[in-house]
Amino acid sequence: MEELIPIQIVIGDRSYRIKIEPSDEEAVRGTVKLINDKILEFKGQFAGKDMQDYIAMVLIWLATETKEETELKRDVANVQARLQQIATALQDALQSEVESQ
């Protein structure tokens, strides 16, 4: 296990000091950026009383729209396309073999 490192993050208008593994820093910072971007997007689209309202909206959005599901669906589509290419190549090779006999 790697040594935890302290980092400073800002979500909404609040600053937090957290400890994470160095290998997770890029992912954490990317997630924080996504959260802050969504807060700004929701502030432009919806009326809210305070920052807590927008953070709650982002939490709901994150809970229902996970990045991993999107990536998994994309990976499955890529594998399916590649398997189809392989199946077509095998069919072509078998057809050529049958025709040459």
CATH architecture of the largest domain: 2-Layer Sandwich
Shape: elongated
Q: Report the major sheet.
A: 2 strands, antiparallel
Q: Could you say which structural class the secondary elements and strand pairing correspond to?
A: alpha+beta
Order of helices and strands: EEHHH
Low-confidence stretches: none
Please, how many domains? 2
Which fold name fills CATH's third level, the topology of the largest domain? Double Stranded RNA Binding Domain
Task: Report the CATH superfamily of the largest domain.
Answer: Cell division protein ZapA protomer, N-terminal domain
Helix content: 55-70%
Mean pLDDT: 89
Q: What is the CATH class name of the largest domain?
A: Alpha Beta
